[in-house]
Hints:
It is built from six helices and seven strands. It is of the alpha/beta class. The chain has a single domain (7-245), classed as NAD(P)-binding Rossmann-like Domain (Rossmann fold, 3-Layer(aba) Sandwich), CATH 3.40.50. It has a seven-stranded parallel beta sheet with strand order 3-2-1-4-5-6-7, with helices on both faces. Strand 1 (7-11), helix 1 (16-27) and strand 2 (31-36) form a beta-alpha-beta unit. Helix 1 runs parallel beside helix 2, helix 1 (16-27) packs across helix 6 and helix 4 (103-131) runs parallel beside helix 5. The longest helix is centred in the middle third of the chain and has 29 residues, at 103-131. The chain is globular and about 45 Å long. The termini are far apart.
Amino acid sequence: MKLQNKVAVVTGGGRNIGSEIARLFASEGAKIAVIDMNKERGDSAAAEITSANGEAIAVVTDISKAADVKRMLTTVVEKWGKIDILINNAAISDNKTLLDITEEEWNLTLAVTLTGTFLVSKCVAEQMVQQGHGGVIVNIASTSGYRGRERAVAYAAAKGGVLNLTRAMAFQLAPHKIRVNSLSPNMVGSPVGKDDFDPNRKVRNLKGRPGNPIEVAKVALFLASDDSEFVMGHDILADGGFMCMM
Length: 246
């Protein structure tokens, strides 16, 4: 098992890519903290892991609020004594253009998608430094951070920020043996903020189909495990070849 006895925190772990990462990591021996704002989703994802003989807890957390993040960290550390892996997956999308988005919608999207990633990373990194044996952080970015879009202006800006935040974190945390990378999906599973997955959704990539969350989870496992020990500050595209067509 690649993650035996590791403790992994997965934000947005109650659905889609996040829940698939949580399940896969648990199957590889990790203890999983499923972090989600939706209690029902988080509890369901954690229960699925425990029913398969894994270890998991669900912690309801608004990652845009520092106090919530600190409470989450305390809960996880009190349960398992450490954190080895952080997957920053939680995000929301505005699905608006510059001309119709409100300031409130802009601020909320950035608060969760970018500031939330910063807050959780800072809190967990401080814990990892205190532990003294390093760790791994994987930020789930997006192809939206690389290109202009006809809508989702705040989401695109936030994910662009996540990409460069990843590089800065990698540089600053490397002396503490904390390895940081990111992973950029495109059109995987259900859209951000929605539960329904349409396998016939029209996509533009080299595969000719939407991605399956397990296909992204496997890349996240590579980045979280020792298999990628020499990969640092890098973004891996798990996009079915979408970006090479741009």
